[in-house]
TrEMBL record:
Gene: ubiV
NCBIfam families linked to this entry: PRK15447.1
This protein's name: Ubiquinone biosynthesis protein UbiV
One family name in Pfam for this protein: Peptidase_U32
Binding residues annotated for [4Fe-4S] cluster, in chain numbering: 43, 178, 191, 195
Pathway: Cofactor biosynthesis; ubiquinone biosynthesis
PANTHER family: PEPTIDASE U32 FAMILY, UBIQUINONE BIOSYNTHESIS PROTEIN UBIV
Cofactor dependency: [4Fe-4S] cluster
Keyword annotations from UniProtKB, A to Z: 4Fe-4S, Iron, Iron-sulfur, Metal-binding, Ubiquinone biosynthesis
HAMAP family with a match to the protein in the record: UbiV
A Gene Ontology BP annotation from the UniProt entry: ubiquinone biosynthetic process
Biological role: Required for O(2)-independent ubiquinone (coenzyme Q) biosynthesis. Together with UbiU, is essential for the C6-hydroxylation reaction in the oxygen-independent ubiquinone biosynthesis pathway.
Iron-sulfur as UniProt keyword: yes
Quaternary structure annotation from Swiss-Prot or TrEMBL: Forms a heterodimer with UbiU.
Length: 300
């Protein structure tokens, strides 16, 4: 049976430089990760204060033998942001993941990855992306099982790797406005990088006090952590070739180790799920999208 790889998705939160370095130094020591996605996908302003730390982390990961993929912004607004994507795509020594249509245009004609922020909901779209040079695609978080199966099969037909997010907070929307800054009484242009106060985003409750969403800079995320575990066997059977874990402020090496043991047959799904829920502590979990029901629900 073809081996299913494990990838660590790009860090979506605004962690300080020292915390980022320590996090990726630890990831570099974890052979369970086959691939690591690096790059700022939410807000280009963050790169100015953590760019050096991220560059150091890339060197550490590559020295440890990890495959590094450079992820682009999921919403490029300004000319400098668009130019930065063009410059990254022009470097043929880099493996790039495009997260919006502009990035995919810049990557056309060379091998590249397609990120989960690109709306790939049917086989026709996947056919076009494959023809333009895509070699790997991370399917959107909100797809249900039947769509994943069809797209994974189509990806294999084209020799592409189909990747699915199985752990992390699902992105729901991204905006040119920064609601995170606004929540602190600040404007986007003078945000003071206030999103760095919330290491897993800012929780947003309903008027009734129920957990609802998470603000993460320009991005709105789910409150609950997507957790696919008992579903892994079906994903593998469908031809999914890589599982992606989205970083949270926790021991991601331990998380990946549980998934690796599950893939290798060293853990039963129910045991793996129990261990992951224990690691998540008081975080809510969800898998509703996979079953075509409310995304915030969890079908045990």
């Amino acid at each position: 049976m073809t081996r299913v790889d494990i990838a660590l998705g790009p860090l979506t939160y605004n962690w300080p430089a020292d915390k980022r370095r320590a996090f990726y130094e630890d990831i570099a020591k974890q052979p369970v990760f086959d691939m690591v996605y690096m790059g700022e996908t939410i807000c280009a302003k963050r790169s100015a204060i953590v760019g050096e730390a991220m560059a150091d982390s890339v060197l550490a990961l590559e020295a440890a033998g990890r495959t590094v993929v450079y992820s682009t912004l999921s919403l490029a607004i300004t000319d400098p942001e668009r130019q930065a994507i063009t410059d990254v795509a022009a470097d043929r020594d880099l493996l790039v993941e495009g997260n919006d249509a502009g990035a995919l245009r810049a990557c056309a004609g060379r091998p590249h990855h397609v990120g989960p922020h690109v709306n790939v909901y049917n086989e026709g779209t996947l056919d076009v992306l494959a023809a333009r040079g895509a070699t790997s695609i991370c399917l959107p978080w909100e797809l249900e099982r039947a769509s994943i199966e069809r797209l994974a099969a189509r990806a294999r037909h084209h020799g592409m790797v189909a990747e699915v997010e199985v752990f992390g907070k699902a992105p729901l929307a991204i905006s040119a406005r920064c609601h995170h800054a606004r929540a602190y009484g600040l404007a986007k242009d003078g945000c003071q990088y206030v999103c760095g106060k919330d290491l897993e985003g800012m929780p947003v409750d309903t008027l009734d006090g129920e957990a609802f969403l998470t603000l993460n800079g320009l991005q709105t995320q789910a409150d609950a952590v997507t957790l696919l575990v008992s579903e892994i066997a079906s994903l593998v059977e469908a031809g999914v070739g890589r599982l992606r874990l989205s970083p949270l402020n926790m021991d991601m090496g331990a998380v990946a180790g549980i998934y690796r043991a599950l893939l290798d047959g060293a853990l039963e799904a129910d045991v793996a799920q129990e261990r992951l829920i224990t690691l998540l502590g008081d975080r809510a979990v969800a898998n509703g999208f996979y079953y075509g029901i409310e995304g915030s629900s969890f079908a045990a």
